[in-house]
Specification:
The radius of gyration is 28 Å and the shape is globular. By secondary structure, the protein is mainly beta. The protein is built from five helices and 56 strands.
């Protein structure tokens, strides 16, 4: 009995100890498990009312600014223009034209383009989606803000605006939560009846999308057609013989940071015959709509029974040829999508039939990014003459059976809008990534307005040490340009013997630029997605060589952002840093590279796109080396991670703690005044988050302090230190430029001579004390001398 009693006792003790051990493990691990299960919150979708409030605060700061007398000077470029999204002309007019720029505002000419004037700069967003002039009253003009093309660099609008005096004054009429406006249609006889097609947010799902209608001139709105928070209205036309009959195209679309818009269910054509009260799908004869993208639509004014649909068809087509690549140079690994297709209906959309040919021209007409095009127009006087807009502008005169590309010197590519004079079909006005073009002979020849419509979309600005110095910037769909800071100065103020002009230099449309401070004839720039090159000006021409680092044999491919960061070390102009998902360093101007980091992004495999929609993501976006100490380097990524190394990449420490989760790092600046101080800006635009994220650390990033102060919203794109005063900082946001004299406690607006615009980069020349900004949509501006800012405290 004693033996059994002892056995039971030991067995019980053993079980007890096991239970205690398990309990202790659970006690230790349960907080970790809870933490693992806890979802990290990400800030998304700023309240539209808050955006409008922030703009009002910005306007008040402009009026109260202590630097209201410090004036900006426009320096160009004046040899190129920029992406325009829509055009309209008052009924019966030939010479008055309204043009909307993607990020450059609304412009008007009353002399057929000889001169242009911006007429809607004082609004929260000068991104223009659509323009409509009332057919019954040419003084009534409607403008929808927020382009519907959802580029990676598109900017959200704040609803619709109305003018009753031909653009002299404007009133906000609501729909601020839509962010993008694709089409505005006004009743032919009653200008108070207006329909708006809203695709919705670019980056997040939302309910403020679909078709909206007002019957009281915009005082109130009713959402008359809505499917869900993923599907928006992207095109809308009205039957000219019956204003109660309209056709809308719906599109399931969203952009991810790692993917262009992908096809999804819910696309199609819908029709109402009762002014929007009821809608019926009209898709018989269209392709499988689960695998289509954007659909454009137009009606023949000469025969309203005839409609055309321009379909971005992602249904699989032919097999690729050996070695065949997509427009970005990537190998096709599956069937190539069918591409652009034109469908026609002769019975008011009851049935559709494909009329466009199956050929390589149509297949590649919109590249792999038909989501940015989707526009077609029917000649108002001929139901068989049709224009389609993609990478090229093409015309059919046989009802869509064949198309001819239209080409002429100065006619830019990437087309987004077309107006055809209803009284003269030969008079055409086209808008594209290069600005605006006009034809008087049905598209055979074209005028351009590159020199007098200054809506250039810069991504950044760099400078050299020439006297006077030059500025450089990459431009959407144009490549890289260089101009002199003295450009546009009055002749009396220009340096003796000075001549200047803007000119193209090596570099792609999306690239950071690094100019050798000891030799301005050496430029480091990329083509697409960080494909780095070194360019040298020799024998009166540029010579470029690829210096992109290579991945190891068993390593994943390199990932580079659209604006992959490249910098020259402040300690040695031969030392170059280039950011992909790793940071690379070259000690000999890019001839040989060393990888000095691991992958510094989160590299979430679920956030990597699939071809042909994939966009490089989880990449470096910002790099800064301390002027105090060689090898003290900060980096930030597009997925919100921040790291520092104090030994040239020997070891890295993550310093993301205390920062908002998963925000795009737009800038890091290691201070020139203190070794432990670093500045950081984050940009939430890719979450439809417009807050102002500005931070400072004085302990190498261990802790961060918010220094946004009284800046009323963002997004924030750049921060820079003043070259002479450690307490003075400059910030560029999507509303303008701010300066602080006390390290961020209080900010002031620098706005004299500057429209409300998207300031995406700025520099202060260290020798000349000149402030230069690069705007996305309005070119470059300078304040020639910032001494009044630096000396302001002395006057108090």
């Amino acid at each position: 009995m004693n033996i059994f009693r002892n056995l039971f006792w030991y067995k019980g003790l053993f079980v007890f100890l096991i239970i205690c051990a398990i309990a202790s493990v659970l006690a230790v691990s349960s907080p970790l498990m809870a933490k693992a299960k806890k979802k990290i919150e990400k800030i998304e979708s700023t309240d539209p009312a808050l955006r409008l409030k922030w703009f009002d605060q910005h306007v008040a700061m402009k009026e109260a600014s202590i630097f209201k007398d410090l004036k900006w000077r426009f320096i160009g470029p004046d040899i190129i223009s920029g992406r325009c999204t829509d055009v309209d002309v008052p009924k019966g007019s030939k010479h008055t034209i309204y043009v909307g720029a993607a990020t450059g505002g609304l412009w008007k000419t009353v002399n057929s383009g000889i001169t242009w004037e911006p007429i809607m700069d004082d609004v929260p967003s000068i991104s223009i989606g659509d323009i409509a002039v009332a057919p019954s009253n040419p003084n009534i003009v409607w403008v929808g803000t927020g382009e519907a093309n959802i580029f990676r660099a598109s900017v959200a609008g704040t609803g619709v605006y109305k003018s009753t005096d031909a653009g002299n004054t404007w009133q906000h009429m609501g729909l601020a939560g839509t962010h993008t406006i694709a089409r505005i249609v006004i009743h032919s006889n009653n200008p108070d009846i207006v329909y708006v097609a809203a695709p919705g947010h670019e980056w997040t799902y939302n309910e403020e999308r679909g078709v909206f209608k007002t019957t009281d001139g915009g005082n109130t709105w009713k959402k008359v057609f809505y499917i869900n928070d993923k599907i928006g209205a992207v095109d809308l036309v009205m039957d000219p013989s019956d204003n109660n009959t309209l056709y809308v195209t719906m599109w399931n679309r969203i952009r991810r940071r790692w993917s262009d818009p992908m096809p999804g269910p819910g696309d199609g054509v819908f029709k109402t015959t009762d002014g929007g009260n009821t809608w019926v799908a009209k898709n018989k004869g269209l392709p499988d709509l689960k695998l289509t993208g954007r659909i454009g639509i137009d009606i023949a004014r000469s025969n309203p029974s005839v409609l055309y649909a321009f379909v971005d068809n992602h249904n699989p087509g032919r097999m690729p040829e050996k070695g065949e690549r997509d427009p970005y140079g990537r190998l096709w690994k599956a069937r190539i999508m069918k591409g652009a297709e034109v469908y026609r209906s002769d019975d008011k959309a009851e049935t559709w039939r494909k009329v466009s040919p199956d050929n390589r021209m149509m297949e590649g007409f919109c590249g792999t990014y038909g989501w940015v095009f989707g526009q077609l127009r029917v000649d108002p006087n001929d139901e068989n003459t049709v224009y389609i807009m993609g990478l090229a502008l093409a015309k059919s005169t046989d009802g869509g059976k064949s198309f001819t590309r239209l080409w002429f010197p100065g006619l830019h590519g990437d087309h987004h809008g077309l107006w055809i004079d209803p009284e003269d079909s030969n008079y055409l006005i086209n808008v594209n990534d290069g600005g605006i073009n006009i034809s008087y002979d049905g598209g055979k020849t074209w005028r351009d307005f590159h020199r007098n419509l200054p809506v250039v979309q810069f991504y950044n600005v760099a400078y050299d040490m020439e006297k006077p110095f030059n500025v450089y910037g990459s431009v959407q769909d144009h490549g890289t340009y260089k101009g002199n800071v003295a450009h546009n100065l009055p002749w009396r103020e220009r340096p003796r013997g000075f001549t200047t002009r803007w000119e193209s230099v090596p570099g792609g449309e999306g690239t950071h630029l690094a100019i050798d401070p000891t030799d301005s004839n050496t430029i480091y720039s990329s083509t697409f997605y960080g494909r780095l090159q070194r360019s040298e000006f020799k024998n009166n021409r540029w010579e470029s060589v690829s210096i992109l680092p290579k991945a190891g044999e068993e390593e994943p491919p390199l990932r580079g952002q659209w604006l992959a960061p490249t910098i020259i070390s402040p300690h040695n102009p031969w030392v170059i840093y280039h950011g992909m998902q790793y940071l690379f360093r070259s000690m000999n101007r890019g001839d040989v590279w060393e990888r000095i980091s691991s992958d510094l992004s989160y590299n979430n495999p679920e956030q990597q796109g699939i071809l042909p929609f994939a966009i490089p993501y989880a990449c470096l976006t910002a790099v800064s080396e301390s002027p105090f100490k060689s090898g003290l380097i900060y980096v930030g990524t597009d997925d919100g991670r921040v790291h520092v190394t104090r030994n040239g990449g020997g070891s890295w420490v993550e310093i993301t703690k205390g920062l908002p989760y998963n925000k795009h790092v737009s800038r890091i600046v290691a201070s020139k005044y203190d070794e432990g101080t670093v500045y950081l800006t984050l940009n939430g635009r890719r979450d439809d988050d417009f807050a102002d994220y500005i931070y400072k650390s004085t302990d190498l990033g261990k802790t961060w302090v918010d220094i946004s102060g009284n800046i009323p919203g963002g997004p924030v794109n750049v921060i820079r230190e003043d070259p002479k005063n450690k307490d003075i900082l400059y910030v560029g946001t999507d509303l303008g430029v701010y300066v602080t004299l006390n390290g961020g406690k209080e900010w002031h607006v620098l706005a004299n001579g500057l429209p409300t615009c998207f300031v995406w980069d700025l520099i202060i020349h260290p020798r000349d004390n000149t402030l230069v900004i690069a705007t996305n949509g309005r070119g470059m501006y300078v304040i020639d001398d910032v001494s009044p800012i630096q000396d302001y405290k002395k006057k108090e």
